[in-house]
Structure formats: C-alpha cells, structure tokens
Amino acid sequence: MRAVTISLFGFLLVIAATIISFCDGNSNVLCIESERQALLKFKQHLIDRSNRLSSWVEGEDCCECLGVLCNNLTGHVKMLHLGLSSPYEDASYAEWDAYVGSKLGGEINPSLIELKHLSFLDLSNNDFGGLAIPEFIGSLKSLTYLNLSSTNFQTAIPYNLGNLSKLHYLDLGHNSFFEAKTLQWVSGLSSLQYLDLSDVDLSTATDWLQVTNKLPSLVELHLSDCYLNNNDPSSITVNYTSLAVLDLSSNMLSSIPTWIFSLRSLVSIDLNSNAVEGVIPNGFQNMSSLKFLDLSWNSFSPSSTLSWLSNLNQLQFLGLVYVGLKGNFSSAIGNLSSLTHLDVSRNGIDQEVSEIIESLSRCCLDGLESLNIASNKLSGHLPDQLGQFKNLAYLSLSGNSISGPIPFSIGKLSSLKFLYVAKNRLNATLPQSLGQLGNLEHLDVSNNMLEGNISEMFFSNLLRLTVFRASNNMLTFKPNPSWIPPFQWKSIGLGNWRLGPQFPQWLQCQRNMWWLDISHTGISGVIPTWFWNLSTSFEYLNLSHNQLVGEISYLPGSYVTDLSYNLFTGPLPRASSDLNFLFLSKNLFSGSLSNFLCNSSTKPEALGFLDIESNLLSGEIPDCWENQRMLEVLNLGNNSLTGKMPRSLGSLRNIISLNLRKNNLFGEVPSILQHLANLLILDLSENQLTGSIPAWIGDKLLSLVVLNLRSNKFQAYIPDQICALNSLQFLDLGYNNISGAIPKCFCNLSAMATIRHYGFLAGFGVAVGPGNIFYLGALLVMRGREDEYSTTLRLVTGIDLSVNSLTGEIPKELGNLKELRSLNLSGNLLTGQIPENIGNLEVLESLDLSTNRLHGEIPSSFSNLNFLNHFNVSYNNLTGKIPLGTQLQSFDKFSYIGNLLCGPPITKNCSSDGETPDVTNGGSSEGRHRSKVNWLYVSMVAGFVMGFWGVVAPLFFIRSWRFAYYKKLDHIGDKLYVFWATIGIRIWKWYSML
C-alpha cells in the first residue's frame, strides 16, 4: 500500500535482500577459509531454536550456506542476510508462533570483523534479549547496508556507527534504546540515503533537525514514535536537498511544523498519530509532488476544509482516519485523478454512500485500488455504479448505516480481494454474482439483516477465499451431506445461521481451519469424532448456544474455546496446555474440578479466562491455583461446590474477576485474598460464608468496581475501610446479619459521586481472538430484579444493604453520591427521617427504603427524581402528603402501603390545608387536636352502633337466627374437638415409641 514511499534505492535493496535469502548456487568460487571460520564462530554464539543455520557446518562451503552471498570472483563474503519477514496481520497464531520460534538470539560474536568485504548486514526481526549493539559493528567500514530493526537491542546507540561513512541504508528502528541526547554521530554518515530511528527517544535531542538536514544524499527519513514535539529551533533553515520521504508519525506534535511546507520535493509525508489540533493547514496545496499523505489519528477541527486537495493531482495515497471529518466529504475528492488508496474510516461523514461512489467514479474510476470508509455515518443504498471500479482490490464499508441489497454489479469487481461490509443494515440475500469473484480472499458480511438460502453453487468459484465472516444474519445453508467444498477456509464465521439440526459434514474437508464460529445455529446431537481429529488445532472455536450433547474427553483448541449454553455432560474435558480462554458455562458438566486443574499431566497451564458457571460441579474447590498464575477471570458460580475457600486462590495475582456465587461455601473469607490487588469484580454472594466483612478489602483491593457479598451469614459492622474504595461502583451486602450504623464515610466512594464519560461501549472489554471482545460481567440486583450487566457495567452504580439489622438514621452524606442509580436500604431497623438531600440523586433509577422504622414526611425534593422506575417506601411510619412529581405518582399504592400517607397515587385524600390526620404525632394547635379526637370518638361510636344493631340485635329478637347461630357454633366446636383429639393421640403414640 505504501510502495510510493520507498525510494528506488530502497526498493532495489529489498529485492537484493530477497534474492540473497538463498545461496548463490551458480558460484564456483569457494569462500575464504578465515571467513568461513569467522562465520562458524559467529554461529556458535547464536541461539538458533528453529535450526535455521543447519547448513552452517564445518567443512561446507560457506558461500553455499543459507543467508550468505559471496563475490563470484574473489570468494569474499559480501552479504549476510539473516533477517525475518513478519507475518501478515491476519496470520494465524500458529504462523505467529512459528515466526517467533524462528528468531535468532544469543550474542553477536566479534568474529564478523574478519569479514573485511562485508557490505550488507541484515539481522532484522530477531531477538537479542536486550543486549547492546556491539561496538565492533562500527568497525565494519565496507558496510553500505545495515538493518538492525526490531531486534530487541537496548541501552544506547554506539556513536562509532558514525564511522561507517560508506553507509547508504541504516535502520535501527523499533528497538528499546535509551534516550539519545544528540544525533551528532549521524553527521559522519555523508553517504546515507535511508535513515530509520523509529522508537528512539529523541525528546532531548534538539539537534535532530539540524543534523539530518545536513545529510546531502538523504532520501528517506523515518522518525516515528521518537517523542518529538514542536520545540525545534525556528531559526534553522531547512532545505533537505534530496529528501523525498518524511515519516514523523506517532510523535507528540501539537501542530504541523511549518518548515515541512517549504520542502516542495517531498513525495511522501506521514504525520499520523500525533496530537495535532486545529484546522488542517492549507500549506499542503503547494506540495504538488505529493503522492503519499497520511494525517490520520489527529484531533483536527471539524470545521477544517479540504479544498486544498484539489491541487494534489499526483496524490496516490490519502489517509484521514479518525481526524474529526463531519458532514459531506465527496466534493473534496473530485479532482484526485491519481488516487489509488483512500482511507477516511472512523470519522463522522454523514451522507449517502452513493454520492461518494459517484464522486470517486469521476476522478479515479480506473485507478482506485483501495477504499476504506468504515465506521462513519453513511446511509442509503450501494449503487450499481460500484461494479465499475475494475482495479479495486480492497473495499471496506463496515460500521455504517447502509441499507438495501448488495448490488448484483458487485460481481464485476474482478480484482477484488478484500470485501468488508459488516455492521450495516444490508438486507435481501447474498447475490449470486458475489460468488463470481474468483480473486476474493476475505469476505465479511457479518452483523447485517441478510436472509434467504445459500446454495452450494454460490461457493463454487470462490477458490481463493480463506476468510468468510457472515455471523449474525438470517441465512440458511444446508448443502447435500456428500458435498465437498472447493475451498480451504482458514476462518469461518457462520454464527446465527440455520445450519442444523445435523452437524455440518462439509467441515470435515477443511484442513487449514483455525477460526470457527457456528454458535446459535440450531445444531444438535453428538459432535462427530472426526471433528476433534482435524489436522489443524483450533485457535478460536465457538460452538455455543446449540443443543449439543454427550461427553467430551479432550479440547484441542489452543487459544479460545467456547462450548457454553449446550447440554454437554460428564466430567470436565482435558484441555491443551496452551488454551487461554475456556467457556463451559450453562452445561451439565459434573464431578470435581481437581482432575481438570491439578493433574500434572493434563492441567492447562496458560489459562487466562475460565468460565464454568451454572453446571453440576460438586466437591471442594481444589487447592492448586498456584499453577494458574496467568488467570485473569475465574467464574465458578451457580454450582454445588462446598467447603472453605482454598488459600491458593491468593496466588492468582493477575486475576481481575473472581466469581464464586451461588455455591455452598462456608467459613470465613481467607485473608490471603488481600493479595489480589488487581481485582475489579469480587462476587461471593449466595453462599454460607460467616464472620465479619474483612476490613482488608478496603485496605488492599483498591481497584474493586463490584463487591457482592449478598445472601451470606456475615455479622458485625460494615468496616469504615470500605469507604477507601474509590473505584467501587456497586456494593451489595444485602441479606446478611450485619448490624450497626451505615457508615457516613460512604460519601467518599467517589466512583458513585463523579460524572464519568465513556465511549461507545462502556464495559470492561478484553480482546478474545480477532474481532471478538469479551466483556466482564456481573449479576446484580437492581430495580427489584437480578440482571447481568457486561457491556454497560461501567455505567452501573448502586448500594444494596437490604435485609440486615442496621440501625440509626440514614446518613445525609449519601446525598453526595450524585451518580448513584440504585439504593436499597429495605428490611432494616433504620429510624429517623428520610434525608432531604436524597432527592439530589437526580440519576437515581431505583430506591427502596421499605420495612424500616422511618418517620416524618417523604422529602419534597423527591419530585426531582425523574428517572425512577422502581420505588418503595412501604411499611414505615411515614406521614403527610406524597410530593407531586413526574415519577412518584406513577407507582401503585403498594409502594406506599403501611404508612399514614395521603394524596395520589393512594386513594386517601389529604385535608384542605395539606395535612393528613396524624394520630402518632398530633396536630399543631389545640383546636386541631380536639377536632381529631372528636372524629375518632365519632367513628368508634358509629362502629359500635352498627355492630350491635347489625349482628347482636337480630340474634336477640329473631329466634330462628339465634338457634342457627348456636347450632353452627356447636358444629365448629365438635370439629375442633375431633381435630385436637386426633393430634393428641398421635403425639402420645409417638412419645410412647421413644
């Protein structure tokens, strides 16, 4: 994509480096003996885990060895190419592991000094374990090419590299060098054409601009991620006579340096990932030679105009990712006649997608090769005009609001290799013409509204397709059981398709598969044996939310395996030692955890996530967690585990979420858990734990976001140390035996008091494989019901102290928790009045103060609680009028029952002066008091009269009624006598048997 940034010289060097990766088999000249011995000595000090240098042996011609190239005439070693090429971004974990395993390590022996004629040395992408660059490399005076990039060299750059006056190419980038305070040593490299010092800390090297400006032959300068800022001396006149490529990306520039606009010969400028603010300057309009411009990942003003783009008619690559573009964009690109690559993803471009396609068709219909407009606000339908871009190889429109069908003309894009239209509103079905794209390698149509049946013929011409992601649509694919796919897919995403009920037989032919998602697909029955015997080990396997049954003995997955929400039975399966994410929740696995975790021959050693919630596990939690030092999330909730919490849980120093809820654990919380300093979520609810709430929770677990100890047998007081948990968002101590007062210091729980701003997804997310995010979840009781919160967990705040024995008054300090969304203090012995400032909790959604001993009125400030959807103050001693407000009248009378309240929504009207009769506290004057007492007596007399004349009088004067009444009493008496007599006899018999 960035071929325009490579000078002709650099391009030739890359070609040469590729050619010399193999020995020159046509050479008839044997290498010099002293140089052969030097190479063997060099090999002896290297660590070669993959045996790359197996051809470097005693007695062999070194000119025939891998990575060695000799001069055909003299036999002198002139090139040594031991660098590696890193895998593509979409490579499998196995390919990445193979790449890492191929890295050379160890030390670089000074024997290389014997190679007097060495002009080319490439050790890039190896790993020398933090050693320093050997000083002797500065003595290799014949070097014209030196590449030590990404080799894990550290400490300082040796200044004697400045002695390599013949050097044309120097790449020291992407290492961990110490801060370089000066670049004066570079001034000796008078022949230098290519310089890459990326990742070198140049924050104090104020001479970098002056020194590099004086290199007469410099063509390419790469200073990415060097901590550069805008403190360069403005007095320096910059001319860079030969500079064509300038890379200042990933620095700390707050504005674009003005001296850049004076370099009219530049063909490539990369300023992405800085801190540039303000409008995009118009200075670029005078740089008519530009072919590559990347301003991505900066904070430009939305008011920036792009009219200057019209002058850049040689521009081939334009990167404006996440720069704050708004509104209409199509008019700015109409004159970019040479454009081949356009990336304006992650902005706020708000217009019809057809307008952008039409504008591009006018300027660069035949030249456009890559188009990325993902994650904007595009709407409308994809036009048929899209099929006219004959050279388009990469197209990404994901993450917009594009609707309608995929146009049939898509089948005309014969050069297309990558098509991403995920996360839109596309409907209809996949057009048959899409199956004609014989060069297509990656296809992602996931998270749309596509529907219909997909036939076997659709895939017949997609022979090069290796990645097919189409999950979360409404598509159906049920090929003939004997169908043999013509492709070999590496990555398959068919989640939410209709594939079942039979297990897909065609998967049996996929031997290169490492990523598979067939969750929510309606398949049932037993997984075929051949599936577990596929030659490739799964790195991502998702079979969740089906009706699969049977036992599983072994899981071959090496990174992520999700079998949750099925009907698997039997003991927990053995897992591969390098499995990292394992999800087995909502199944019927039984037995103990011990064999799975503690067996030295079968235990998984790299687990980061272990979720076995809601199974039938029994026995004690095993005491062997010291073997799981990498574990970050552990969920054993809702099983039948018993016993005490094992002390070895304290060895899980990396754990961020520990869930042991709804088991039968007893005893106290072991103090060794105080070492779990990274915990965000601790859920021990619904067990039989005893003792007091540990004070060390507040002293040591300072990162806690959720603390749930609900439904246990904790006693004593709430420790004040809990108030030190500044990150705590949800505290649930309900249904225990806690006594004492509510701590006033709860007002220090700052995460419940401060307004926080989060992005699009507000959960605690962890990447689980490519394109998948696992969000930490928690089951929390809010609004009177229990719900699971994951993607929105950061937005949830609440305190639940219900059904305890708390006494005293409700602290008015709770009114300072302005971000509190749920407060439940019901079922306690709280007294006093409801604090007026509780009404200041304006985002409160749930408030339950029922079943206490509160008195007084409901504060008038409660009328400000506009977001309440759950409210209960029943069974207290509250009096007075219910405040009129947006929400309080929307709840039924049962939210107020058991008080002496009046006004809507209860039917009891208040008196004209707004007061309700208050027998408990009396009135405010003697007259009012007398009036209330008189009405009480009147009602008593009226009740007596009605009772007497309605019941007693008829019995006295009407004989038939009197006989019927006493007969009924005799009948009831006989029944009671027989009942109690029978009970007595049974008790006597039971007692006689003792």
UniProtKB/TrEMBL annotation:
Record's GO cellular component terms: plasma membrane
SMART domains documented for this protein: LRR_SD22 (SM00365), LRR_TYP (SM00369)
Keyword field contains Coiled coil: no
Pfam families: LRR_1, LRR_6, LRR_8, LRRNT_2
Membrane topology category: Single-pass type I membrane protein
Residue ranges occupied by any Leucine-rich repeat-containing N-terminal plant-type domain in the UniProt entry: 33-71
First and last residue of the signal peptide: 1-25
Bilayer-crossing regions: 758-781, 935-957
Keyword Glycosyltransferase attributed: no
Localization: Cell membrane
Keywords, comma-separated and alphabetical: Cell membrane, Glycoprotein, Leucine-rich repeat, Membrane, Receptor, Repeat, Signal, Transmembrane, Transmembrane helix
Gene3D superfamilies assigned: Ribonuclease Inhibitor (3.80.10.10)
Family annotation (InterPro entries): Leu-rich_rpt, Leu-rich_rpt_typical-subtyp, LRR_dom_sf, LRR_N_plant-typ, RLP23-like
Origin superkingdom: Eukaryota
Similarity remark: Belongs to the RLP family.
Name under which the protein is recorded: LRR receptor-like serine/threonine-protein kinase FLS2
Source organism of this protein record: Durio zibethinus
Biological classification of the source: Eukaryota, Viridiplantae, Streptophyta, Embryophyta, Tracheophyta
Gene: LOC111296326
